[in-house]
Amino acid sequence: MKKAISKTKQKCSLYTANLLSQKTIFCLYLIFTRHNAIYSLLTFLFPQMIISL
Predict the structure, then answer these.
(1) What is the DSSP string of 2-48?
(2) So which domain of life are we looking at (predicted)?
């Protein structure tokens, strides 16, 4: 039972690390491309909304 819990925790932390790195990459992408921020935000937020649903 304890092993299962720690595995779940590992998965969660991996997932959050993944999200954080994605956001960092996205921010860098925004800085380098400097194109329409609203469009970029939308393309970034929509997949996340879909994932959370």
Answers:
(1) HHHHHHHHHHHHHHHHHHHHHHHHHHHHHHHH---HHHHHHHHHHHH
(2) Eukaryota
